[in-house]
Write a structure and sequence with these properties.
Structural class: mainly alpha
Largest sheet: 2 strands, antiparallel
Shape: globular
Distance between the termini: 27 Å
Helix content: over 70%
Number of helices: 14
Number of strands: 2
Strand content: under 5%
Low-confidence stretches: none
Strand order of the largest sheet: 1-2
Order of helices and strands: HHHHHHEHHHHHEHHH
Oligomer: single chain
């Protein structure tokens, strides 16, 4: 259904939007999906466990800020600075995992606290100053050609996003990590009684989410150059919405990376399509909310039907 909705949206805007069916518009759709896509892939693991991660957006910005400070103020190379940003995101994921899995904090409360910590830490490290990454013409701007667009304008970011999605899909469907994450989300107590270390696997899910937020920070810096402290609030809602639209159940135990990626592009097409019809950004927020509610209602209906079928047997 998500794939059908994506195709229908694209056809609709191609017919009624201004210059929507063009190469430039297609590249804009890809460009606006990178950092949201990485966050959405990461949070899919968490939602499948039955949890939530509200810190995604501020962790992404915090990672990008600290990476920028490491390069601009600490004199570290660009490669090492980007790596530091990814490590920062991963550490926040570990913190969330420990708080939720080990200390049994509700995921909403734990990640809400982490969201505020990340926002404050980014502002403190950057001294509440906008951090600017090297532009594409400078020698240290090579990372933009690697992660955003090549010299000839090819949107290389889509390659990285698809590669990340493939790796995440393999982890989720072909490895012990994925099997146990699904098991925890389906029935945590039964999984624990069967001898599985639930604390370990829930923590790993949050670490993966933090890792992808850190990588998303690289993509954000490559696309936008200027990183403003105390921002990022709301990014996590877009990522969570993409996962839910793609079929990941907020009840846990159901989800796929393919569906999440489709959800990301539904939102990206919606954004660019509404712009092509000369509608402001708040219309995107309105219609995204409608789509999310519809996706959740469908998820409730799906779970209810599954329960009825199970009871009938």
């Amino acid at each position: 259904m998500a794939l059908g909705a994506l195709v229908a949206l694209y056809i609709f805007f191609a017919l009624f939007g201004n210059n929507f069916f063009s190469y430039d518009a297609f590249v804009n759709i890809l460009d606006s999906s990178y950092y949201i896509g990485f966050m959405a892939i990461g949070v899919t693991f968490v939602i499948i466990t039955g949890g939530i991660d509200l810190s995604l957006g501020t962790v992404l910005i915090c990672s990008a800020l600290i990476g920028g400070v490491a390069h601009n103020n600490w004199g570290l190379s660009m490669g090492l600075s980007l790596l530091i940003g990814v490590i920062v995101g991963t550490l926040f994921g570990f913190l969330n995992g420990v708080l939720v899995a080990r200390f049994k904090l509700p995921p909403f409360v734990a990640t809400l606290g982490s969201m505020m910590i990340a926002q404050g830490m980014g502002a403190i490290v950057s001294k509440v100053v906008t951090i600017r990454y090297p532009d594409v013409t400078s020698p240290e701007g090579w990372f933009k050609h690697v992660f955003y667009k090549t010299d000839n304008g090819f949107p290389i970011g889509i390659i990285w996003l698809l590669l990340a999605a493939i790796i995440a899909h393999i982890i989720l469907t072909k490895t012990k990590v994925g099997r146990y994450i699904f098991a925890v989300g389906s029935n945590e107590e039964a999984t624990r009684l069967s001898g599985v270390n639930v604390i370990k696997w829930k923590t790993i899910a949050y670490i993966i989410s933090g890792l992808f937020s850190g990588i998303g920070g690289i993509m954000y810096a490559a696309a936008y150059t200027s990183i403003v402290p105390a921002t990022g609030n709301g990014f996590e809602l877009l990522a969570i919405a993409a996962a839910v639209i793609g079929g990941t159940s907020l009840s846990g135990g159901i989800g796929s990376i393919t569906g999440t990626l489709i959800g990301v592009y539904i939102m990206s097409v919606l954004k660019q399509g509404l712009m092509s019809m000369n509608l402001q950004a708040h219309y995107q927020t309105l219609f995204t909310g409608i789509v999310v509610i519809a996706a959740v209602l469908f998820d409730i209906y799906r779970n209810k039907r599954a329960t009825e079928v199970s009871d009938s047997k």
